[in-house]
Each structure stands twice: as C-alpha cells, then as structure tokens.
Amino acid sequence: MLRVIVFLTVACWGMASIAACPDYLNHDMRKLHSKDSVNLCEIDAGRPLLIVNTASHCGYTRQFKGLQALNDKYRDQGLRVVGFASDDFRQEAKNEEEAANVCYVNYGVTFTMFAPSPVLGDDANPVFRELAIQSEAPGWNFNKYLVDSSGKVVEHFSSSTEPDSAVLQKAIESVL
Q1: Helix and strand totals (H; E) in the chain
Q2: Which strand (E) or helix (H) includes residue 10?
Q3: % of residues, the chain, pLDDT over 90
Q4: CA–CA dist 42, 19 (Å, integer)
Q5: Are 48 and 168 in contact (CB under 8 A)?
C-alpha cells in the first residue's frame, strides 16, 4: 500500500510540473537522427535549461566538447543542456546521420539534441520563437540561452562565449 501512495505522489507531482511548464517548451520534437520524439516539459519540467542552436560545420562546432562538459558538471544539480541543430546559417551537415556522427561520435554528446529545424524568423521552431521574444534571435550558430526553471530567459550568450567561460558558469550557478 505504501508503494502505491508513493507512486501516486510522484506521478501527481510530475503532472503538476508539466502543467506549470511554459507552452513554448511543451511540444513533441524529434531527436537528432532518430524516430523518437521528446517533450521538454515531460523530461525537463521545472529545471533550468541551457538551450543552444548548433551546426556541424562551423568554427564554433568545437564548443560541443565544452557543452558536454557543462552537462556533466551541472546535470546532478539540475541543469539540462539542450541542442537544436539548424541550417539557418548554412553550416549544418548534409544529412542527419552526418550531424549525429559529429555530435555523438566526434564530441561524445549525451545531452538531448533535436533534429534540424529553423531557429530564425517566422519559420523558427516554437522554442526559438519564444527565445527571440524574451531575448533576441541567434546571430550565428552556438548562441546560448540560459533559461530558469520557470522558462524565463535569464541571459543570452553569443557564439563567442565559450562554454567554459567564467561568466557563463557563474550565470548557470545562479539558477541552480
């Protein structure tokens, strides 16, 4: 009987978190080079996020290594790093298999990566439409948006802000 009560408490808490999740994160989006979809409200509700627009063939692609290090360093404290592949700046791989190899094989990415989608203008996916409203649209690949647990953009970092920069890590620590 106790197990059932504990399960129901956890299940209800999870539903409350999803209900409190901002609409712009409540979409099923396909993972990179996969048939599986995920909903950020279902997997990361109530957690701070570092949302990044990525590309496989960019001078900043090496930042995948640093983003993975951030994921490893702060994951147990609640941060979720989330990558959105995009070809808006014409530097994405020619297909998802190649993009997946860059992320998963070349850089050992384990954080959630989504299939390529637009991050600019009227065609931007719902996440990046809202990020542009709350902050600004990405000016290039590897823009980083630190979002607090309620879905509010705390700070936007340009491509030139390295994942291991003190300013980014200090901002992350402020939302944990």
Answers
A1: 6, 7
A2: helix 2-20
A3: 87
A4: 10
A5: no
